[in-house]
Amino acid sequence: xxxxxxxxxxxxxxxxxxxxxxxxxxxxxxxxxxxxxxxxxxxxxxxxxxxxxxxxxxxxxxxxxxxxxxxxxxxxxxxxxxxxxxxxxxxxxxxxxxxxxxxxxxxxxxxxxxxxxxxxxxxxxxxxxxxxxxxxxxxxxxxxxxxxxxxxxxxxxxxxxxxxxxxxxxxxxxxxxxxxxxxxxxxxxxxxxxxxxxxxxxxxxxxxxxxxxxxxxxxxxxxxxxxxxxxxxxxxxxxxxxxxxxxxxxxxxxxxxxxxxxxxxxxxxxxxxxxxxxxxxxxxxxxxxxxxxxxxxxxxxxxxxxxxxxxxxxxxxxxxxxxxxxxxxxxxxxxxxxxxxxxxxxxxxxxxxxxxxxxxxxxxxxxxxxxxxxx
Length: 375
Ligand SMILES: Cc1cc2nc3c(=O)[nH]c(=O)nc-3n(C[C@H](O)[C@H](O)[C@H](O)COP(=O)(O)O)c2cc1C
Prior knowledge:
The structure is a single chain. The protein is α+β, with helices and mostly antiparallel strands and about 375 residues long. About 40% of the residues lie in helices and about 15% in strands. It is built from 15 helices and 11 strands. A 5-stranded mixed sheet has the order 3-4-2-1-11, covered by helices on one side. It has a 4-stranded antiparallel sheet with strand order 5-8-10-9, with helices on both faces. α5 (about 45-55) packs across α6 (about 95-110). The longest helix is centred in the middle third of the chain and has 20 residues, at about 190-210. It is globular, with a radius of gyration of 20 Å. The site of flavin mononucleotide has 19 residues, from α6 and β9.
């Protein structure tokens, strides 16, 4: 999340600070935390090479809950790291599973780029609908052949763009059609009436998440404040860049101030996060008939494809998941969204706003090396 440099300087009290901090602002990129974007593809071992792309997948709160066991030749077992779950906003680990689906699809594409096929068996030892557990999420065999996927070309440019979009620039129906064409579970709208309705639902559901202490705290608990913290823990919600670093270094931005509704950090954070929903210039979503773990994995694969297709079209996208979440305080939004987007039944697995926005930075990642079990 970004806060403009000018605004931060105003908050800190003026021009003299601006002069003193010019150098500071130019050195704040968390280079170490971004290294996996440069390391992707740079491994000798084919499995590591393909997995090094998969870690760049979108995933809830950037928790990167993947773990892989590579002890058997030509095979990887994918597990979920149960310390990286989000029990308050994602009580049944549905969204975490969707993120694992994004990971598996990017893995498939990275292998296919070299003509390599993968044979994936989902949940080979079964699954629990209520909670992910110690059993493997997927067994992956490097087997057979495949053909490259054109969407893979967007892998380094793909983002979840969490900024206001340009409300003077509509998204054309033909652009939306090109995006939703890449995923069979996807639908979308750029109709002004639908946009107005979905803006309000996504905005209100987000406000409830922020105003519900336990769900808001779940986010604060995984916030990385400033460059040093982001480099040390390249996951979670990264609040970096010069202005954020300065606020973190001066103590104005801290877990304590973020939990204090009277603080500037809380008020500005609230304003920044809620500035987005009402600027959606279209929406895309995915519905699955049933809501099994494999359905959630498929939804993730399709979300990754939609995200890459948006990139290819020059369109920004941000998942707006709050109305899809399964906790009591947002239940009315959940019902409203399902009535609207899945009138014949089923589960809305993803909902995102689309529009045009200036480019944003890559988000941090752990390198694949940090995710290999028994290495
Ligand atoms: C299942 C799922 C749900 C997500 N929900 C949200 C959301 O509600 N709001 C949001 O800003 N980003 C959401 N994201 C995007 C992640 O925050 C994002 O992928 C992650 O921070 C990594 O950033 P990147 O996609 O730019 O690489 C979601 C992603 C997934 C896969």
